[in-house]
Amino acid sequence: MISVEEALHLVLQHKATLAPEEVPLSQALDRVLAQEVLADRDFPPFDRVTMDGIALRAEEVQAGTTTFHVTGVQAAGAPGMALGEPGTCLEVMTGAMLPQGATAVVPYESCSFLGHEAYILAEQVLPGQNIHKQGSDSKAGEVVVTRGTRITSAVVSALATEGRAQVQVLSLPRVAICSTGDELVPIAQHPLPHQIRQSNGFMLAAALQEENITASLYHLPDSAAEMKESLVSILQEHEVVLLSGAVSKGKFDFLPQVLEELGLQLVFHKIAQKPGKPMLFGTMPGQRVVFGFPGNPVSTFVCYHLYFKPWLQASLGLPTAQAWAQLDQDVSFKPALTYHLPVVLHNQSGCLRATPVTSTGSGDLTSLLKATAYLSLPAHQTTFREGEVFPVTLI
Ligand code: AMP
Ligand code: MG
């Protein structure tokens, strides 16, 4: 049996290579950019007026002129005009091109008008004031967004500015979710006394939706032959198969054997952890990976967050930084297993503190509803003191 750290290390060693694909910018949010985006023109592309007011030669004000004759209006979106003779100005609007010859913009708030004469109220007018100089943010040909950037709304703004209606992003893996077990019935069906509703498939599908992945859902019965037959086509059509259940020691836990018959290269089976000890991970021919999560809803949930999510992050080239939190009360756990303790996180004077959520074990779904994270208490320790700091996984 391997440790949690080793298991994660092995999972990350088998990260996927994801090919680029083109998507409309409107669908690119949260995806990872697979191309370098260069500025196609300077930004701003021209000397841009940043306040409504009048454009003039600052030097004339500095030399003592206080009244300027207004000869016209330069609107945003209109081709650039030119300033007339000394003693004249043009009204200019925010976003307009700075008229040729002008060196400053005096906002309306600092002028008064009488007919076509503008009188400067400001004490001083400096060259360059209220002008956003061409190319001062970025120059044509410069890299605006680097490859590997996660596309946030701010990145969307930059891509739109550069006219990228279509963008190259990393494709997402095709994922199948297979729940197993003869006791499971569809959630819309009324279960008989010996049956339960199939919840893991929905939980995993929802978690994947948060990653922009729409997974296909399957249910496999507790029969080796039927499992095998279904898995042949599922493995053909998906790069990732997430299985829940049938990986423990039960009489009907056929998955490890069936997967092996289908060509599984087992990377590990069993991790020194609770919950989720029977977890299995392996690869299949054709760059496929298989995560076999134990069926207990909490085990499935914890294993998804601890192993699948970092695998996906790594495959997308995104950082997988470990967060830490401080235990806010003593906890004891005897078995030589890493104990993933459900906790509620809160901030205390800038320190992330973790309050344990009372749970009855792997099957305790209610703990999932209360917890905001899992604190991983190491296997080599049995007593964990208030104030000690441990790795934490947000859920
Ligand atoms: P297994 O890992 O197959 O031994 O299942 C462990 C426990 O999880 C059993 O009590 C199962 O009934 C339950 N279980 C397995 N799969 C699911 C599922 N998809 N939804 C809800 N409970 C499940
Ligand atoms: Mg089962």
UniProtKB/TrEMBL annotation:
Domain MoaB/Mog: residue ranges: 176-314
Metabolic or biological pathway, per its Swiss-Prot or TrEMBL entry: Cofactor biosynthesis; molybdopterin biosynthesis
GO term, biological process aspect, one: Mo-molybdopterin cofactor biosynthetic process
Class of this enzyme: transferase
Coiled coil segments of this chain: none
Cofactor(s) the protein needs: Mg(2+)
InterPro entries tied to this protein: MoaB/Mog-like_dom_sf (IPR036425), MoaB/Mog_dom (IPR001453), MoCF_biosynth_CS (IPR008284), MoeA-like (IPR038987), MoeA_C_domain_IV (IPR005111), MoeA_C_domain_IV_sf (IPR036688), MoeA_linker/N (IPR005110), MoeA_linker/N_sf (IPR036135)
GO MF annotation list: metal ion binding; molybdopterin molybdotransferase activity
Keyword terms: Magnesium, Metal-binding, Molybdenum, Molybdenum cofactor biosynthesis, Transferase
Gene Ontology CC: cytosol
Similarity-based family: Belongs to the MoeA family.
UniProt protein name: Molybdopterin molybdenumtransferase
